[in-house]
Amino acid sequence: MKDVAALAGVSVSTVSRVVNGTDVDAALTRRVRDAAQLLGYRRDHAASTLRRADRQSGSLGLIFEDVSNPLFSVVHRGVEDVARSRGVLTFAASSDDDPDAERQLAQAFSERGVDGLIIVPAGHDHSYLMREREAGTAIVFVDRPPRLLEADSVLADNADGVRGGVARLVENGHRRIGYLGDRQRIFTAAERYRGFRQALAAAGIEEDPELVRLDLYDSEVAHDAARELLTVSDPPTALFASQNLITIGAVHALRELALEHRMALIAFDDLTLADLIEPGLTVVAQDPVALGRRAAELVFDRLDGYEGPARSEVIPTTLIPRGSGELPPPAGNRRAQ
Amino acid sequence: MKDVAALAGVSVSTVSRVVNGTDVDAALTRRVRDAAQLLGYRRDHAASTLRRADRQSGSLGLIFEDVSNPLFSVVHRGVEDVARSRGVLTFAASSDDDPDAERQLAQAFSERGVDGLIIVPAGHDHSYLMREREAGTAIVFVDRPPRLLEADSVLADNADGVRGGVARLVENGHRRIGYLGDRQRIFTAAERYRGFRQALAAAGIEEDPELVRLDLYDSEVAHDAARELLTVSDPPTALFASQNLITIGAVHALRELALEHRMALIAFDDLTLADLIEPGLTVVAQDPVALGRRAAELVFDRLDGYEGPARSEVIPTTLIPRGSGELPPPAGNRRAQ
DNA sequence: CTGAAAGCGCTTACAG
DNA sequence: CTGAAAGCGCTTACAG
């Protein structure tokens, strides 16, 4: 900037004013612009915000479990869309579900002066974020709620999604419905299982522990659990798979037992080729773009001065029928009721 | 920092030294740390690098076509892994293949002082980046090479991947092979088509224009093109789909014509449920983590002082046989040769 | 409208 | 080992 000022024959104040668009004599403006162009001048954003009154860095920090997880990368895109419309850029990083990593990333982002933090929480104690918030950083949680901290959050309607899926199975005549669940310490997994139980209760069906397998942490384990569950003495006529990897394991098990056209299946979360497998996979789909957009909007509401109580927003899910969820129970089972 | 110094009863110089780990008397160090802890002090990273000798901001800017594209989100993760091991954070943004957006993002990142830029190029003229590079920013291109700028790049071996896939089809006895290609102005699409022609030439097969459909920009268009191509008077016995969306269109067309078990199919790029569709989808898979890691390594090589000529690295692809690519031509066709 | 000066939060020679 | 002082690139009252 000094160089630009020298070349244009004006003071650095004037250059600063031109760069910031405050009124400056047209001739001077031209001289400054020419000089800047010639020297390839680019304002130092950090120095600028250091001195500025509002102290906004124009950046947000996103902490996901994994930036390459298809769900979170789409959330990221949702955030980006609303942030970019305000000239705000996004940092993104992966915690790999490690609470220490989450903290370190939050700290690293804070040191870099992000205006807001959007977090898919890994930790179980977010009180450490109080200080960042007092320092003016807007904090919003996505996909899972914060613990030990009152803060804005945007969640998918996990319980309701499962409830709707299972209700559909019940409508189609199923009463013995198997459930394949993820680790119950994970918020979304616990919520989904809760939805399952609610749906059974609403239909007046008693839960059969034999038909429920929880804490399935990858497709292999889910595959084994599904095989077991499908071969109990009084097997289910329908299955609910509560998550992507579990769904893959379940489909493998159904194939192996040649049951894919006889056993109804509904899965939580959509998948790329879901309409190309046989039968088409009926899913309860989340809306990750909406999760991201809304989270960003809550961040900017705070930055724009909203100081009300923490808001918890819930984004609805959608049931997408593709065939597997519409299979009726076999005739024998129908009569048996 | 001033406040910490006051509370600890030392000068700001001493606080700075403690924060930066230069040797300070143990007792003073303790007093400073306690004061910092008490005040919730967090160093201002921007102010720090502003004054520092090396001027490194500890951040990288990534410009993808779309952060939510599964390929790029995995590249992102690869970059993140090597960057994080050096304490470097990553900005990421989507250009949506718009050259202007690419430029604006590059500029926004530069203003924020990123140490390096990793770009999936949208534009056709990257000379505008000369200035950033002169300013010390390391620049590496991923997935597609730069234009009008000598710069490091990391590409997948597109041509070779297709060549290998088509060679496999030829080995299995196919001589009439259909090709479904994306818009030829896209570098990767052109490369893949080049690989297709090379494979045919190597096998002494003359290219039949009737069996080649290019510039397919979405699954609908690909679906239509595949249907057409499969119903010409002398139809192919095998198909090569050059990209994800095209593959989806091709599989739909094969299903529609009930040809999925009679027509061989190999696709470029792996997909989540590829082993669960019938028959399993044989693919030429890229290694996006490696693309990202290598790109980050090239960035850090430059930042570490490497000043040699631009390097073009190529990451090999892998053929994953799952059934669809291993279907032989029908007996009649085999005799016909 | 323009310029000289102070200062954002920090680091780093320079003395001591 | 420690402190006073200068200065990184910028913005912004304050005079003129």
Specify the overall morphology of chain A.
elongated
Instruction: State the low-pLDDT regions of chain A, or none.
Output: none
Q: Compute the average pLDDT of chain A.
A: 94
**Multimeric status of the protein:** homodimer
Distance between the termini of chain A: 82 Å
Percentage of β-strand residues of chain A:
15-25%
DSSP summary: helix tally of chain A: 13
Assign the structural class of chain A, choosing from mainly alpha, mainly beta, alpha/beta, alpha+beta, or little secondary structure.
alpha/beta
Q: Which strands sit side by side, in order, in the main sheet of chain A?
A: 2-1-3-4-5-11
**Which chain pair has the greatest contact?**
A-B, 52 and 52 residues
Keywords for this entry:
homodimer; about 325 residues; alpha/beta; 6-stranded parallel β-sheet; 12 strands; elongated; DNA-binding
Describe this structure in words.
2 copies of one chain form a homodimer. The first copy, chain A, is α/β, with parallel strands linked by helices. Chain A contains 13 helices and 12 strands. Chain A has a 6-stranded parallel β-sheet with strand order 2-1-3-4-5-11, with helices on both faces. In chain A, helix 5 links the parallel strand 1 and strand 2. The longest helix of chain A has 16 residues. The relative contact order of chain A is 0.12. Chains A and B meet through helix 4, helix 5, strand 2, helix 6 and helix 11 of A and helix 4, helix 5, strand 2, helix 6 and helix 11 of B. Chain A binds a DNA duplex (16 and 16 nucleotides) through helix 2 and helix 4.
